[in-house]
Amino acid sequence: MCSYWVMLAFCCLGHLCADQSLKPQLAAPQLATNNPTLTTVSLEKPLCMFDSSLRPNKSYAIYLYAMKELANVISSLVTDNSSKPLGNTFQQTNGGQLGPYKAAFFNVPSCAAPPSLADVGDVNKVADVLKQYLFRVGDDGHCLYDPNFLAVCNPPLAPDTIYRFKYVLVDSTEGIMKDQSLWSDPIKTRKIKLPLKIDTSPGRRSGGMIVITSILSVLVFLLLADLLAAVSSAVMRSEDSFAKTRQVSQTIQQSEPRPQLSSE
Amino acid sequence: MAKSDDGMRILQGLLVFGNVIIGMCGIALTAECIFFVSDPHGLYPLLEATGNNDIYAAAWIGIFVGFALFALSILGIIAVIKSSRTLLLVYIILMLITYAFEMASCITAATHRDFLTPNLFLKQMLEQYHKPETDNNKDKWMSEGVTKTWDKLMLQNKCCGVQGPSDWQDYTSAFRVTHNDADFPWPRNCCVLDTQGSPVNLDGCKLGVPGYYNSNGCYDAISGPMNTHAWGVAWFGFAILCWTFCVLLGTMFYWSRIGY
């Protein structure tokens, strides 16, 4: 009896531990550097997540549910009482505010042949690798406004909002949920800033500008002072020379009559 | 007497040499400023839209000052050889006027270079690039100029945004009004394009996968030519003015020493 409870405890512990890795994860940041953006979140596809629940000769699909992490979320259940997955759309849940909405469904990714991230560098293989490895929530900006759109609509998310995501494994023939992941950790979309808030003031003056201005101002001042000095010295010299010429002519006038007197 | 005559001869020789250098520098200044005004990198629309295009005004002044320096240097050589006081006085006064204009050009270029900060271009890019509705013709002309210049910049220099593509994600913009974030996290020219001009892998570009988008900013491609322009006008002009200062001092001394 005791050993039975111990085994059960271990079993539950093991299940819990396994569950920690059974959450949708953000795509690897080295690969998808622009994630999350304002209105999209790129999640890793559930590679090997539901392998234990897959049975041979049956077809399965993965459903992705998204919801806002708000206090007044009415219900975070993704299935009804008979384990059928809910088909709530983005509009019906007001963008995930009232509960989870179905954002996408796709085939179960192959665990036997996982995509190799190293192939991303190859231009021919990158499209396949990205398609197999990740899924972009909020990718389709037009399906909300297209009245002819009948598939699952994956409209852009709201900025600066926290979302949570969940993968559900569904048996395609019976339409019943077979397994589900936990809700992901809260993922927040980016917040936007206004360009009006950008400060365009230049700050301090650069050293070069101060050097140029100060030295040139000094040089101009020296030039003007020198010009003034040259002009005034020229004026003074011309006055001096004018005064000297007058003196010389006076001396000549005074000395001229004497030779006449001596000759007489 | 003989010594002062020798001294005068040496001074004359030095002044002629000084004027020859001024003439050559004047031609070089004109050529350099014509090169800058011709805007080889096509960045003028960005400056015009920010209202900070005074470094181009400084270059325009430089063109005319360079030519004036060349003409005045010839006048100076003739005046010094003829030892004519009148000609020398005319030379000195005209040189002082040219000196003042060149000083204005240098200080303008140096001062206005300080205004060209990354934030200035960032704000203008966000507000003008692909602006959907413009108020009047002038606004339309400016935003078209900004859009074309940025497209060319991003294409030729393989860059995105001012400091990086995150500029488009961190701030709202005129571009964001008409291009939703899911399809256009940043403009298409930020993607690595093939020879036909379409992105090599559009999903890779939107996700920011390294190698499929341009991850570096364009500020270096803008500030490099702007710096060359501003410092070329300011510092070369400053060097010419320092030399001209010495020649003018010598000329004024010479003028005060010779007779009519």
Automatic annotation (TrEMBL), chain A:
Residues 1-18 form the signal peptide. InterPro entries: Uroplakin-3. The gene is Upk3a. The lineage of its organism: Eukaryota, Metazoa, Chordata, Craniata, Vertebrata. One of its GO terms (cellular component) is plasma membrane. This is UPK3A protein. The keyword S-adenosyl-L-methionine does not apply. It comes from Centropus unirufus. The chain crosses the membrane at residues 209-236. GO terms for biological process: urea transport; water transport. Keywords: Membrane, Signal, Transmembrane, Transmembrane helix. The keyword Cell membrane does not apply.
UniProtKB/TrEMBL annotation, chain B:
Keywords: Membrane, Transmembrane, Transmembrane helix. The keyword Transmembrane helix applies. Pfam families: Tetraspanin (PF00335). The gene is Upk1b. One of its GO terms (cellular component) is membrane. Heterodimer with uroplakin-3A (UPK3A) or uroplakin-3B (UPK3B). The chain crosses the membrane at residues 12-37, 57-81, 88-110, 233-255. It comes from Centropus unirufus. InterPro entries: Tetraspanin/Peripherin, Tetraspanin_animals, Tetraspanin_EC2_sf. This is Tetraspanin. The keyword Transmembrane helix applies. It is a multi-pass membrane protein.
